[in-house]
C-alpha cells in the first residue's frame, strides 16, 4: 500500500530489535503476538518496573523526562546485558506527549558513544538502589528547596573509606554513631535540615550515611565543569576521579542535579521537570 506507510515505515523497516518503553499490557501483547508469527526482531521492554512481565527487560532507575536520555539509557542497558549487539538498528517506541506510546525513534546501538549513564547505576560500587535513592533525594530537594529558597547539596556515594581519607570535617558529624540509610523515612527530614549547611554528605556502597559536613580535598587537576559552576561541582567531579565514588550534586545557582563519575558529568536533570 502506497502512502504514509511507505515513508514512515522506514522508521521501523528491517530493525534488529524493538524497544518498548513502559508499554501497557495490551500494547506489549500485540508485539508478542507479532513476534510469534515472524521472529526476526528482538523484543525488549524498558521501564522503571517490568509491569508487563516481559521476558527481556531493561530497568530504568527513573523515568527520564528527557527522551534521548531515556532511550540512551535503554540502549546502554540492552547492550550491557547482551540483548542487542553493537551496530544493531532499533525502533524505540515511547511516550512523549501522553501516557500512551506515541513516538518511534530509529536508533543505531553504538557501543562507542556510550555515555556511561547505565554504568552510573549498574556498575557503580554503590548499590543501584542507593544511587537511585540519592538521585531522587537530590531531585526532591531541588524541587522543594529550603523554606522556598533554592538549596545546593553534594552527595558522594560509594567508596566511603577512601572518600573520608580525602576529606576533612567542617563541623561535628551528626551521623557519627547513627545507622541511618538513604531511603529511611527519617532521612528526608534530616537531610533537609542539614543541607543548608556546608560540605558534602558521604554515603557508603550500601547506603549508610557515613558523614555530613565533609570538606572534600581531591586533587582537581584536569577536571572540567560547566562554566558558571564553582567549588562544589569541582570538588564533586574531582572526588569521583580520585576514588570509585560517584557524586550527585544539586546546584544552588542553576537548580540542576548533576551526576559525576570518573571525573565526568554523566547526567544532568532538571528537578522541575519531574
Ligand atoms: N571542597 C568542597 N567540599 C565540600 N563542599 C564544598 C567544597 N567546596 C564548596 N563546597 C560547598 O559548596 C558551596 C557552594 O560553593 P560554590 O558556590 O563555589 O559551588 P558551586 O559549584 O558554584 O555550586 P552552586 O551551583 O550550588 O553555587 C559551599 O558553600 C560549600 O558548602
Ligand atoms: Mn556557586
From TrEMBL:
Described function:
Diadenylate cyclase that catalyzes the condensation of 2 ATP molecules into cyclic di-AMP (c-di-AMP). c-di-AMP is a second messenger for intracellular signal transduction involved in the control of important regulatory processes such as osmoregulation.
Question: What's its EC?
Answer: 2.7.7.85
What the record says about family reads: Belongs to the adenylate cyclase family. DacZ subfamily.
Residue span, Diadenylate cyclase DacZ N-terminal domain = 1-129
Organism the protein comes from: Natronococcus amylolyticus DSM 10524
InterPro entries, per database record:
DAC_DacZ (IPR014499), DacZ_N (IPR045586), Diadenylate_Cyclase_DacZ (IPR053542), DisA (IPR050338), DNA_integrity_DisA_N_sf (IPR036888), DNA_integrity_scan_DisA_N (IPR003390)
Task: Provide the reaction this enzyme catalyses.
Answer: 2 ATP = 3',3'-c-di-AMP + 2 diphosphate
Q: Does the keyword Manganese apply?
A: yes
Keywords, A to Z, come to: ATP-binding, Manganese, Nucleotide-binding, Nucleotidyltransferase, Transferase
Gene3D superfamilies named in the record: DNA integrity scanning protein, DisA, N-terminal domain
Q: What is this protein called?
A: Diadenylate cyclase
Which cofactors go with this protein?
A: Mn(2+)
Q: Which residues form a coiled coil?
A: none
Amino acid at each position: 500500500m502506497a502512502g504514509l506507510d511507505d515513508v514512515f515505515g522506514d522508521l521501523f523497516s528491517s530493525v534488529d530489535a524493538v524497544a518498548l518503553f513502559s508499554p501497557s499490557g495490551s500494547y506489549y501483547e500485540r508485539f508478542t503476538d507479532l513476534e510469534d508469527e515472524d521472529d526476526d526482531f528482538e523484543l525488549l521492554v524498558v521501564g522503571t518496573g517490568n509491569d508487563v512481565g516481559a521476558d527481556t527487560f531493561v530497568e530504568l532507575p527513573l523515568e527520564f523526562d528527557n527522551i534521548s536520555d531515556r532511550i540512551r539509557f535503554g540502549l546502554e542497558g540492552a547492550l550491557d546485558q547482551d540483548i542487542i549487539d553493537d551496530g544493531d538498528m532499533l525502533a524505540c517506541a515511547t511516550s512523549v506527549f501522553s501516557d500512551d506510546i506515541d513516538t518511534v525513534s530509529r536508533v543505531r546501538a553504538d557501543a562507542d558513544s556510550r555515555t556511561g549513564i547505565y554504568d552510573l547505576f549498574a556498575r557503580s560500587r554503590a548499590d543501584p538502589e542507593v544511587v537511585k535513592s540519592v538521585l531522587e533525594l537530590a531531585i526532591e530537594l531541588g524541587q522543594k528547596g529550603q523554606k522556598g529558597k533554592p538549596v545546593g547539596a553534594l552527595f558522594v556515594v560509594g567508596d566511603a573509606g577512601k572518600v573520608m581519607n580525602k576529606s576533612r570535617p567542617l563541623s561535628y558529624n551528626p551521623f557519627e554513631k547513627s545507622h541511618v540509610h538513604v531511603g529511611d523515612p527519617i532521612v528526608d527530614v534530616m537531610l533537609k535540615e542539614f543541607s543548608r549547611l556546608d560540605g558534602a554528605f558521604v554515603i557508603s556502597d550500601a547506603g549508610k550515611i557515613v558523614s555530613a559536613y565533609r570538606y572534600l580535598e581531591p586533587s582537581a587537576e584536569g577536571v572540567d565543569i560547566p562554566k558558571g559552576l564553582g567549588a562544589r561541582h569541582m570538588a564533586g567531579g574531582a572526588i569521583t576521579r580520585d576514588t570509585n565514588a560517584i557524586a550527585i550534586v544539586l546546584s544552588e545557582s542553576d537548580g540542576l542535579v548533576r551526576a559525576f563519575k570518573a571525573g565526568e558529568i554523566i547526567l544532568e536533570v532538571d528537578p522541575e521537570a519531574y
